[in-house]
């Protein structure tokens, strides 16, 4: 029985193709029960690799079934047929993803960015409170509903955090996600705190929202790591960002994991809280630095770079010489897993390797 017939028996009228990979595809469909369009991810177990079937798919299904938040894509139904196909029926992001939105319309005004970022941060707090980490936060995985509200999608890299006997979260040792959004500790192969990793990705996303460009050029991973470890964040002068906004981004893109903000600190930050805005230039933050002093460490971009798209980054100025990194990632194996679909088709590139290093995707994964 083909997909259209299977879906018809479940009360869905199959529509257009929204995205396709080597073992999964996403279709639009009209739900006769819900009376609106949905997205249906269809996974063929016969074509999928073993590690995906044994680890990633069970994790994703378990987590999708437990999530219920207004800023997370809803999962309406999950079922499997006897011929080994899994159907995941989800909320449809009718306005596409945030990356395409920014590429088309440019950087967001701070008020619009604040609203969308608050929605996203609330979704991450909800997940983190459940000890669920996303680990693939990027603009392509942020869908927009009919009113342009954020809907977090694609939990293919997500997992439940484990705790040790003392109740502390255990570290993760494997790389996952996209290099452009990955924290420096992840790119270096250092055991990392997965919730803290999510925060770095949030910082990259907010930067893209308000600047319309990437904060770092990931075409040279070694150079990018040097700049990140020096805690250098360059903002376009022409965007006229407020000090509060730059302060928040700067503190999320903190290479020291012990000083990087937690999700509760993000939600309580003066830029995120409209009623508490008006951070004075001499206000002292939790790290013992004034916002004025913090701002002086930013390296402004030249105004000629202001027209960059969110996917193209011009090289920044050379970072200062630094000792070689202890763990040097192979630059030719770090690939940005650009998601071609707008409805959360699980990325098939850069799946984590159990050995804890960057893994070259095999042909069966591309």
UniProtKB/TrEMBL annotation:
SUPFAM superfamilies reported for this sequence: Protein kinase-like (PK-like) (SSF56112)
User: Which molecular function terms from Gene Ontology are attached?
Assistant: ATP binding; magnesium ion binding; protein-containing complex binding; tau-protein kinase activity
Keyword Kinase belongs to the record: yes
> What's a GO biological-process term for it?
spermatid development
Q: What is this protein called?
A: non-specific serine/threonine protein kinase
Q: Which reaction does it catalyse?
A: L-threonyl-[protein] + ATP = O-phospho-L-threonyl-[protein] + ADP + H(+); L-seryl-[protein] + ATP = O-phospho-L-seryl-[protein] + ADP + H(+)
Q: Which GO terms describe its cellular component?
A: acrosomal vesicle; motile cilium
Stored Gene3D superfamilies:
Transferase(Phosphotransferase) domain 1 (1.10.510.10)
Q: Which cofactor does it need?
A: Mg(2+)
Q: Give the highest taxon in the source lineage.
A: Eukaryota
């Amino acid at each position: 029985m083909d997909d259209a017939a299977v879906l018809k028996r479940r009360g869905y009228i199959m529509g257009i193709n929204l995205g396709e990979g080597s073992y999964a595809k996403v279709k639009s469909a009209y739900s006769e029960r819900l009376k609106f369009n949905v997205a249906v991810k269809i996974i063929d177990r016969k074509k999928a690799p073993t590690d995906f079937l044994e680890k990633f798919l069970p994790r994703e299904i378990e987590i999708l079934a437990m999530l219920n938040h207004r800023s997370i894509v809803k999962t309406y139904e999950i079922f499997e047929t006897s011929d080994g196909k899994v159907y995941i029926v989800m909320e449809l992001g009718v306005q596409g993803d945030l990356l395409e939105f920014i590429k088309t319309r440019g950087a967001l005004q701070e008020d619009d960015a604040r609203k969308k970022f608050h929605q996203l941060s609330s979704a991450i707090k909800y997940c983190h409170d459940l000890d669920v980490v996303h680990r693939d936060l990027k603009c392509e995985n942020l869908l927009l509903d009919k009113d342009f509200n954020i809907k977090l999608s694609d939990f293919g890299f997500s997992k439940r955090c484990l705790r040790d006997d003392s109740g502390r979260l255990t570290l993760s040792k494997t790389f996952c996600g996209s290099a452009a959004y990955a924290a420096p500790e992840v790119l270096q192969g250092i055991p990392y705190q997965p919730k803290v990793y999510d925060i770095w990705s949030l910082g990259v996303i907010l930067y893209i929202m308000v600047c319309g460009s990437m904060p770092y050029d990931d075409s040279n991973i070694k150079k990018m790591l040097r700049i990140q470890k020096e805690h250098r964040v360059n903002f376009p002068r022409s965007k006229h960002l407020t000090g509060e906004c730059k302060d928040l981004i700067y503190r999320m893109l903190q290479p020291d994991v012990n000083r990087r903000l937690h999700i509760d600190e993000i939600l309580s930050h003066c830029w995120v809280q409209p009623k508490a805005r008006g951070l004075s230039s001499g206000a002292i933050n939790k790290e013992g630095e004034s916002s004025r002093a913090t701002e002086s460490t930013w390296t402004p971009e030249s105004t000629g770079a202001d027209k960059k798209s969110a996917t193209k980054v011009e090289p920044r100025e050379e970072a200062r010489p630094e000792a070689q990194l202890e763990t040097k990632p192979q630059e030719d194996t770090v690939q940005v897993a650009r998601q071609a679909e707008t409805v959360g088709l699980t990325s098939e590139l850069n799946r984590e390797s159990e050995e804890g290093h960057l893994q070259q995707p095999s042909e069966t994964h591309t």
